[in-house]
Amino acid sequence: MHLFHIRHVFLTGLRKFPPVIYCWLLLCYPFSLVAKEAPTCSDASPVVFGILPFVSAEQLVIQFSPIAHYLSKNLQVPVRIETAPNFVEFARRTNENQRYDILFTAPHFYPQAHSQAGYRLIAGVDSPGMWAVIVAPRDSQIHELDDLLGKKLATVHPAGLATLLVRKHLTDAGIDPDVDLTMVSTPSHDASLLSSYHGVTDASALMQPPYAAASARVKENMRIIAKTESTPHIPISVSPRISESCAAEIAELLLQMATSTEGKAALSHNSFSGFKQASPEAYEKISDLLSQ
Amino acid sequence: MMLYNSPLFHSLRFRLIASIVSIEIIMLSLLVWNNISIIHSTHTDRLRDTATSMIQQIANSSGNYMVAVDYATLKDYLSNIISYKELSYIVVVDRDDNTVIALGTVTPEDRAAIDLHPAQVHDGVYDIAQEIKVADQPMGRVLMGFSLSLMDDAINASRNRGITIALIEIILTITVTIFIGLGLTRRLAMLSKAAAEVEAGNYSVSVPTETDDEVGKTAMAFNNMVAEVSKRTRQLLLEEKRTQQLLSENRLLIQKSLEVQEEERKHLARELHDELGQCITAIQADAESIRDLSPKNDQRVITSAEAILTVSAHIYDVVHSMMHLLRPSVLDNLGLVEALKDEIHAWNKRNPKTKCIHDFTGDLSDLGERTNITIYRIVQECLTNIVKYASATQVNIELNNDAENLHLTIDDDGIGMDKNASAHGMGLGLIGMRERIQALNGTFFYETSSGEGFRVFIHIPLAYSE
What we know:
Chain A has 13 helices and eleven strands. Chain A folds into three domains: 2-34, no CATH class; 43-129 and 232-291, Periplasmic binding protein-like II (D-Maltodextrin-Binding Protein, domain 2, 3-Layer(aba) Sandwich), CATH 3.40.190.10; 139-227, D-Maltodextrin-Binding Protein, domain 2, CATH 3.40.190.10. Chain A is elongated. In chain A, helix 4 runs parallel beside helix 5 (110-117). Chain A is an alpha/beta fold. By secondary structure, chain B is of the alpha+beta class. Chain B has eleven helices and nine strands. Chain B has helices at 2-5, 12-67, 71-82, 149-199, 214-293, 299-326, 329-334, 336-350, 369-390, 419-424, 428-439, and strands at residues 87-93, 99-104, 125-134, 137-147, 355-360, 394-401, 405-412, 443-448, 454-461. In chain B, strands 5-6-7-9-8 form a five-stranded mixed sheet, with helices on one face. Chain B has a four-stranded antiparallel sheet with strand order 2-1-4-3. In chain B, helix 5 (214-293) runs antiparallel to helix 6 (299-326), helix 5 (214-293) packs across helix 11 (428-439) and helix 9 packs antiparallel against helix 11 (428-439). In chain B, 22% of the residues are buried. The interface between A and B is medium-sized, with 17 and 12 residues.
């Protein structure tokens, strides 16, 4: 990319400056090729990679450190992973402080981040979509939604996408989540799943990717009784502090990850296969979930 | 040095007890020193382990908070920990080394040097650090300081307690050792005391033999030995007494025999003088009458009468000489001094190669017959011995007295006697002299050595003089 830029400057200069200057530039050109160009994202150093706390902080670090290292290496600036104690705090830091330079947040949080804090969408997780599942222990008597009546259903944070999708799904099925059953909030998707697995609650609601990533032993003893509607997958956006060129470079690196060995290795710690270009309009559709 | 010379230092009891007490004091001191070292090591190791455990736990627990930048919750969590009594401060720094939490006695700018071990701390605070990692990714660091004051107090308390216990133990040990030592050596002391009593001549002592151990056996042997010594001593005393009695009787007998001898000599001399002298005088008178009245001056008669006169004169000389030997008449007539002078004069005449010099001073006129004849006989015996054995050139005889004693000294410059020979035995002459002197309660002794002459010293109490 930088070679293209230098070539453009050179050709433009040929038309504007006298021959002496051309000769001087010709002499200097080889040195300009050798000289190291400053990183595009150097102004943002260190780049803070904010990730929604949808799993434990340690799990976040395990899953996203390879991607952070990949970005850091190619951007030539430090990239640091950060999260927040909970979804609300994460959203607050995003919207009020623009704390995160690269934002990896829930689909339903992006519209607010965009509108309130000026985050710009640069990519999305390359996946058909996301949905939540309601699962119950295989040896339980819960086989369908109606069996949840009067039962305790574990969910994530009330503002979590899984909670919102399940609430909408239950409401659409004629079940009032605030009356017909008891929704128990847990700190994470794993906690929600393990809650019913250990018998603390009768069923669990969580997003499908964390469920897919759960241990086989747990999944063998669980039964999926419902799937919610699908939403676009996780959006990747950047804060206004990130320049256009830096944003473009980050986007380019993310989009090309799945095509390189190094990128694939970085992605191997996650359940998704890569990143793709994303449309802001797709996320506007789920803003109503947030309003609920 | 004074202690070494002290009798106490040479006491077995003292040395035994002092040795045991010294060893015990040394061993207990080493034990206390070792305990103090262990206490110090234990406390410092305990603090190091506690600190390491705490900081690792905090670092592990802080990771999620650091990733989530949830410093408020982390601070709440650490605020509970900072109340730990030994903990001086907790500082948490982020990945940029900025202080995000500072609790305790520390300002955010303070960054003490990290200490390797509590034993190497110099500022009173054990400073340690631990990196905060999440999934091997650095998220910051925890810095903690542990005050050593509590540990030092605990060490001091333990040390003081240990020293106090050791001192009590030492005192108790010394007391018990002294008591046990005195008890164990009591019989030795009794044995020693009994030996001293025996040495002083008291053979009635007895040591208790209540046990069958070495000391008991020694005591039994001692008692048997003392009984045997006592028995032998009694026998010896009896023998000595008997010998003394015999000796006294012998001396008395000797004195008596000497007295009888002198009396007989005196009597014999008188008889010779009175009877034989008169007869010889009569014979001489008759011979002279026969010579003078011989008719016609018969030459044969005259010759015979002259022969009788000559023989009778010779007999008279012989008798006179015998009388003098038996009892010098001058002793009875003129006294001791004159008798001695006469004897010395005669001796000088008979022995012209030896010069006898005398020196008589003091009042020697009233010493009594026994003393006079004893002194006279001794001088006579000494001069005879000098002639026989001494080969002397000069003899000195001194006789004098003071208020209490009569002193006689006879010495010559002769060949003397070998000391060993003189020590082994006295000649009969010397024995006779000694017996004569002892009969007068006097003292007799002599000194001589080979080539050094011979000296006789005699002292007779005047109170004994008659």
